[in-house]
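I had to read the description of the data format several times before I understood it. For illustration, here is how one protein appears when written out as sequence plus structure tokens:
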Amino acid sequence: MLSYANQEIRYVGRVAEFAFNAPKPEEFGNAGVYWNRDGWLLPVYWTPLTPAVRPKTLISSLGQHLPTRYSPIHPITGNGNQKAYLAQIPRAAFDVIVASAVFDHIVLARGGSNSLNFEVVSELLDDAVERRVAVDLTLDDTVRRSVVMARRGQGVFRSNVERIERSCRLTGITNPSLLIASHIKPWRNCSSAQERLDGHNGLLLTPDADLLFDRGFISFSNEGGVLVSQRVQHADMRRLGFEHLVHERLGFEEAPTPWGNAGLSDGQRRYMEHHRAEVFIS
């Protein structure tokens, strides 16, 4: 990836992780006022390009490699296209741009492996939301504490979930000590304390199943069947012990579990629609 701003390309980047669901950053302010509140965060590790490259000075050789539609750079003038927020360019265009500059290939290949993974970034996003909860004067102290505990699947939220769910929908395990109360609509994406504490916004899952669900690698149909993302390799599902979810056909399909999951409650269905649309990587 290349970062273009103020007529210069100063950084080259590598996508460090699959995109995942996240709230629109507060730094955006009024930008994208009509955008959905929930979007996709793509972790990218950036390293400097030295010296910075001005595409305009390379347009005689660069222009022929730029895409004919949705190009971030005008192929004749070399000016930036203000309407292009994220655009794809051919490898040949990338090679022309970086040919006259230097960047650390080793750092780029390794950078972000520990700092930009799903667990670390989602934790940072949740921290930011928790700070806003801590100063929310519309919540009394008891509700505020309950909302903060709900972030970890504890307290009032877990009790509310346990009134609805009795076992892990993926493994059938019923031992409470082995189960996590997981939000269906992610805690950070909830719009109110009520959503964060609502038992219908939760499932009881084993740790492996919880990670797959939070990461968007699995979801559930309204009837309780399992949906498996194409992003998960069959071999990995087998290693996790989920052989019953492995399918040889292309795409994903709904897989009934051997424990005969009941369908979702009406309340759960509303939250699961959000998960399938905004979290599940289909």
The first strand starts at residue 2 and ends at 5. The two ends are 24 Å apart (CA to CA). Residues 48 and 142 are 47 Å apart (CA to CA).
